[in-house]
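Please check both lines for our workbook:

___
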Amino acid sequence: MNGIEPGRIETGKAEAGKSRDAVTVRQTLEFAVVWVFVTLLGVLPRGVARGLGAGVGWVAYRLLGRLRRVGERNLVLAFPEKGAVEREAILRKAYRNLGWLLAEFCVMKRYTAERASEFIRYEGLENYVKARDKGKGVLVLTGHLGAWELSSFYHSLMGMPMGMVIRRLDNPMVDAYVNSIRCLHGNRVIHKDDFARGLIASMRAGETVGILMDTNMTPPQGVFVPFFGVLACSASGMARVAQKTGAAVVPGFLLWSEQEGRYVLRFGEEIEMVRSENTEMDSTLNTALFTAVLERSIREYPEQWLWMHRRWKTRPAGEAGIY
């Protein structure tokens, strides 16, 4: 499927005690499970698929204790002022949101611009257009908040395809399949192992690239900046590329509105960056600025963030681990 021949997939590295054929069989089986799951959920009406997705989220919350405990720890760090009951309610809704996102991903290859616009609307699109029309490229500052997979897909459906910086999935067959859905309407992927070169080229061509900037990093790719009042090692690449190319940085999130019963793709105003002769200090200050923008959005919609990620795993030298 999609040009992949299962028998010719290579893993890139052999596992101790296992033959390459055995690894290939495992990858093929994993791919088969993913393909069947996405296909079966994808033929269902959207409402039914979202209901099943929410059910998958509930099961994950109940059964995956290690991830749940990470989420609980993160919520204590981020919201020490909230009670245990309130934090638990946030985490349960975060799992529901993740289930909804899973369902949307399975169904979205059937979406047309007209169909998707029934349950998605723009807010602040003029902020994006103004930044784009400067011609120096746009870096969309985003994170694992709301429906991040659906956001870039909808933007491409509306005639504005973009690049996406992603990490390769461990299974190359699943990776290719997932990317084939992401890129149905002109989007393209930029892998993290080609991050700097691909991003700079995109900005010089005046293109748009979205970056999920809320994951744990390690030095030197990451610098320590405050996140919910706790130092977090955060990717500085976006700041460095923006400083080098003059690209505009615009926050963008696709968020579920309970009041409207639909998603809202919100673009904020272009972020005014710190610029001086000390580029190293500027990159840290701008990374802190971007992280603060992310934090404000997460505080507004805490039930839609991926709390199960070990965001504060990397610690400054000499500091004890959090998890």
Remarks:
- The CA atoms of residues 226 and 232 lie 6 Å apart.
